[in-house]
Amino acid sequence: MTGIPVEHGLILAVILFCLGLVGLMLRRNMLFVLMSLEVMLNSAALAFIVGATAWSQPEGQAMFLLVITLAAAEASVGLALMIQLYQRFRTLDLNVINRMRG
Amino acid sequence: MELAFYLSGLVAVLATVGVITGSNPVHAVVYLIVSLMAVALVFFALGAPFAGALEIIVYAGAIMVLFVFVVMMLNLRPDEPEQAWTHPRYWAGPSLLALVLLVALVTLIGQGEAGGTIEGELLTARAIALTLFGPWLMVVELAAILLLAALVTASHVGRRRSARDTRGGAL
Predict the structure, then answer these.
(1) Could you report the per-residue pLDDT of B98-145, keeping only the tens digit for each?
(2) Domain total for chain B?
(3) pTM assigned to the model
(4) C-alpha to C-alpha distance for B143 and B140, rounded to whole angstroms
(5) In chain B, at which end, N or C, are there fewer CB atoms within 10 A of the end residue's CB?
(6) Residue B139 in domain
(7) ipTM for the complex?
(8) Least CB-CB distance to B46: which of A14, A53, A71?
(9) Which CATH number characterizes residue B58's domain?
């Protein structure tokens, strides 16, 4: 038992990313789509942390801070869009709103 | 340390599966919080306590509270139409493709020369701050501009529908 192989950390990040991708493709409820996006961003952040600790460089963790900033911005804009969607269409089903009108 | 890493990694994966398969929005949000806290534990196990603490405070704390507020505000119920979409006919294809993607990526990482193991030596907040406010200062300011833009966008998009807008209806 001498530490965690770098590959295992990266594989965990890849598994989480694939789960988020499956959720993104599978779900049509906007809340679940946003949560899948959060999962994918989070797995990218995990990969940065794995890289940072593997090479003992602080840049990866600085990048993690920026990823978290991006996630916060994305979540706020996405949730505002979701509220607007619900007020206009009374549903969160993305299949309802991707029909074109004009 | 290894045990903590593998256990919390397993918890993270299982909780994420709970997120993408759940039909009740509140349950899914709780699963996502568990998943984020498991990832934070992974950070602690890897020797990044600063990132782990930030993950809990910012992600599991602030961002997830936003999600919970929105779920409460919209008073969402477990939706029935979604049940039709959870039939295997719909998700078998995409998840099979994503599984192939996963196998490809895992084998790619296994073959590669990432090299070395993580002994869990600590990277403190001091080193990160010196990086952020030294050579990366411009990136910090760009992040501040991004946050400001997100603030303006969210307050503009999320406003109540005014009487002027109700004519068109279309987005």
Answers:
(1) 788 788 878 877 776 666 677 666 777 788 888 888 888 998 999 999
(2) 1
(3) 0.83
(4) 5
(5) C
(6) no
(7) 0.89
(8) A53
(9) 1.20.120.1200
